[in-house]
Specification:
The longest helix has 20 residues, at 510-529. The chain is an alpha/beta fold. It has nine helices and 34 strands. Pfam families: LRR_1, LRR_14, LRR_8.
Length: 532
């Protein structure tokens, strides 16, 4: 490169993220050229911020993604960058320190991606022209500026998740007509959802999870009719869910409201979401019965499963086929666990033939598991634990050929465990503890692989792997049946030891799979935006 005096554009990238390529030049090397654009990805130029780059003061486009820099960036480098800078990507490094405080230094800067570093201090407000602002996964602190919407009126996508932001979201969005995605999850933000969010008519993704927001969902939000993903989970929201969610958000494919204090019934209008693939209302105070209208969620019915969902993911998961396949394989799920729902499990739910995950645990449900339930042939996860369900397990449970997780613990089930369970070759998690099962655990390699704790709390159940020997077995020394009450969070402890997509998914479909979906969508939509 010594003789390339006229070099203006330099690109060095690899498809691998393991840093197999090292960009090795002398520390004090001063290049003879003045670059206008540089793109370095998935190679090593760090750990120090390269001295040769510090003298490049004519750059209008900078990409240093995953290049192993774990240093601070000299303040003079930012100061020397021209005001014509339009593109700045420094993501996926370990860059530390604070950024220059001067606002609006780069009036033409449209893309700012500083994600996945260790930047500190207040949020950088560098450009009135910015349309993409990715600052997630850093250590930015303080509050979101009161005039945020006015300072950056052209913003379309803002990702501020996993920082240390505090305070309220300012009610300053009346003039921000171009917003498509907002992600402020995993901070310490408080207060209510700003009423001015209702002015964001183009909003498609709204992610506010894992903060301390409270109050009710504002009526103005119903103006955001283009929403496809809304995640308000793990906050302090309360009140009755507005029925207009089911009528206004016809494009919604993911709704996560888990771990809040919403109350009242689940209105039939929620069944009017034709594109919904993920519904998580767990850990609230909902009462009443499980809606009989759930089959109206037509995206979870065979023939409609995956049309909208797959189109979105094909865009979002470009170049990551294994993860795409995993999500598409498990994409239809309903989690109503941890509420105060009563009554029987409605037979109508069995019409959701594309349903893959059903979690109704920790409610007050009663009745029996009917043969109709065994018609959910796509089901991979079924959790009915901690209810008042009685009767026997249907013999046709063996028809659920792709079932991987079954939790029926803490109910009033009785009778023998059906031998057909042994035919479920994909079954990797089984818990039937603390019921009234009797007889011998069916023979077969599948049911013998589970821990004895999966069967405990059934005094009349015997045979390996339980601790109770059957009378007909040659070894007559029996261990006393386990009695008493197990720790309330035993199931969580069991599944936290598992692997794969179903770790903790049995108890909290939203905590495992949904989190994965949101994370992957978030990361890959961002990546698509900044590809060259």
């Amino acid at each position: 490169m010594v003789n390339l005096r006229s070099l203006e554009n330099f690109k060095l990238t690899t498809d691998s993220s393991n840093h197999s390529l090292i960009f090795n030049v002398p520390v004090k090397w001063v290049p003879p050229f003045k670059l206008k654009s540089i793109q370095l990805e998935n190679c090593i130029v760090g750990p120090s911020f390269p001295a040769w780059l510090q003298v490049q003061n004519q750059l209008t486009s900078v990409t240093l993604r995953n290049v192993g820099i774990s240093d601070t960036i000299p303040g003079e480098w930012f100061s020397n960058l021209p005001s014509e800078l339009t593109f700045l990507v420094l993501s996926s490094n370990q860059i530390t320190g604070k950024l220059p405080s001067q606002q609006l230094k780069f009036p033409r800067l449209s893309t700012i991606d500083l994600s996945s570093n260790k930047f500190e201090g207040p949020l950088p407000m560098w450009s009135t022209n910015a349309s993409i602002l990715y600052l997630q996964d850093n250590k930015f602190s303080g509050s979101i500026p009161e005039n945020f919407g006015k300072l950056m009126p052209r913003l379309q996508k803002v990702y501020l998740s996993q920082n240390q932001l505090v305070g309220e979201i300012p009610d300053c969005w009346y003039h921000s007509f171009m917003f498509w995605a907002i992600d402020v999850s995993n901070n310490s933000l408080t207060g209510k959802i700003p009423a001015s969010f209702g002015s964001l008519r183009s909003l498609s993704i709204l992610l506010l999870s894992s903060n301390r927001f409270d109050g009710e969902i504002p009526a103005s939000l119903q103006n955001c009719t283009g929403l496809t993903s809304m995640d308000l989970g793990k906050n302090r929201f309360s009140g009755v869910l507005p029925s207009w969610i089911g009528t206004k958000f016809q494009s919604l494919f993911m709704l996560n409201l888990q771990l809040n204090s919403f109350s009242g019934p689940i209105f039939p209008q929620f069944c009017s979401l034709p594109n919904l693939h993920i519904l998580d209302l767990s850990g609230n105070k909902f009462s009443g019965t499980v809606p009989k209208c759930l089959p109206n969620l037509t995206a979870m019915v065979e023939g409609r499963s995956g049309e909208v969902f797959e189109q979105l993911l094909l865009v979002a998961m470009k170049g990551r086929k294994m993860e795409l396949d995993a999500i598409l394989a498990n994409g239809n799920g309903i989690n109503l666990s941890g509420n105060n729902l009563t009554g029987n499990i409605p037979g109508e739910i069995t019409k959701l033939s594309a349903l893959r995950i059903l979690n109704l645990s920790r409610n007050q449900l009663s009745g029996e598991i009917t043969n109709e339930m065994t018609k959910l042939l796509s089901l991979r996860v079924l959790n009915l634990s901690s209810n008042h369900i009685s009767g026997a397990i249907p013999e046709k449970i063996g028809d659920l050929k792709v079932l991987e997780t079954l939790d029926l613990s803490h109910n009033q089930l009785s009778g023998e465990i059906p031998a057909t369970l042994s035919s479920l070759t994909f079954l990797t998690h089984l818990i039937v503890s603390y019921n009234n099962f009797s007889g011998k655990i069916p023979a077969g390699r599948q049911l013998q692989t589970f821990d004895a704790s999966s069967y405990q709390g059934n005094p009349f159940l015997c045979g390996f792997p339980s601790r109770v020997k059957c009378p007909t077995e040659s070894i007559t020394t029996t261990a006393p049946p386990t009695t008493g009450t197990e720790p309330e969070d035993e199931e969580d402890e069991i599944f936290e030891l598992g692997t794969g997509l179903y770790v903790s998914i049995v108890l909290g479909f939203g905590f495992g799979f949904l989190g994965l979906c949101v994370t992957l969508l978030r990361k890959e939509f961002r990546k698509k935006d900044i590809e060259w």
